[in-house]
Amino acid sequence: MSEIAKLELDGETIELPIITGTENEKAIDISKLRAQTGYITLDRGFKNTGSCNSAITFLNGEEGILRYRGYPIEQLADKASFLEVCYLLLYGNLPTKSQYESFKISISKHTLVHEDMKRFFEAYPAKAHPMGILASMICSMSTFYPESQDPNRSEEAFELTMHRLIAKLPTLAAMVYKNSVRHPFMYPKNDLEYIENFMYMTWGMPTEEFEVDPVVASALNKLLILHADHEQNCSASTVRIVGSSQANLYASISAGVSALWGPLHGGANQAVIEMLEAIEADGGDVDKWVAKAKDKSDPFRLMGFGHRVYKNFDPRALIIKKAADDVLAKLGIVDPALEIAKKLEKVALEDEYFKSRGLYPNVDFYSGIIYRAIGIPTEMFTVMFALGRLPGWIAQWKEMLESKDPIGRPRQVYVGENARDYIPMEER
Ligand code: CMC
Prior knowledge:
By secondary structure, the protein is mainly α.
């Protein structure tokens, strides 16, 4: 027998179905509430609102569990390749050897971006933020592939768009970087693996041989996997909601990139390093900055701390912290920012303010330290996050369409003026 929740409203009892997920997660289905009662629910920031059924990522914030399609993040980060995880997210299962080979071939066939796109870069100011350029470039891709704009496109055409995006994002990201340092663009070298190719396009030079550093390649592989999906976060929800209007995949992903850019979401990785640098420049007094973060009259927050769903620990942060130690040791780098980060973490974790609110280091707290150690400029950090999150966004978009979800359109409680008559300007 299906479970029912009962709601007492205006002297009546309303019965609402209870939905149970495969991990025993419970939800009250209110989809008919307004039609039945005239009431809506109000949940600013969607703190308690499920927007869809999803079979992509399972996350339990209390226990620090994160799984893609059932596979624990710890196993994937340790053993899988990023491209394998892309396949898993997009198609639901880990690929067989032959599925993986044909996926890899398809991706490597589409790594070039249209030559005309090179000219767009000339128009940006020298100090343009990479995320602004990336979002524009991704949206611009829809103009080169107008068939992607047709909501009734064939399965094959959709498959091609997905593969093009996965294939071209590293090329675009590397172009954004090369443009920022005013170095020549490097064409992709398709006999290289996905991450190695990105490294080659980013750090290679036409006049020099390029050698892939396996420590850097492995760190990047891990970071991209850790970022690959995170269920209904701000950018994934944006991608789904934009796509729900039947806007094309490029436009939807571009919107996701814009949502990710904010410092409360993916932009936190840049903000963390800037914060650690500011603490260092200020003399390294960690207690002073912790006090600032606790002071409600001060807008400063401890960047890289806290999470909407993780209230105990962020499993990605544990993996990244260890990876940061490994990478710095292997590359022989001593980074004062890492020492400050560790001190900050220790002080904050022992502090009642942070303990009582369940505020722990999140994925962005240590990722910037790795990016910095491997030579990625601070403003490119969130681009790296976008590179990792891309398969998740696509999988979420695809699932939204396949589930035939209606257009995303929340309601509101209106608190403005009541009806009033227009007064001519001279009489106001
Ligand atoms: N420093 C100081 N206080 C904080 C922080 C922080 N980083 N984060 C939350 N709080 C306080 C907040 O002021 C509130 O206190 P009170 O109950 O006294 O009003 C309480 O903790 C609950 O916070 P909230 O803002 O209501 O929580 P939220 O779920 O709306 O926000 C968050 C989550 C991630 C936006 C927030 O924790 C934050 O701003 N963190 C810093 C930015 C950051 O690191 N973002 C990256 C998130 S992980 C990457 C990703 O996937 O996006």
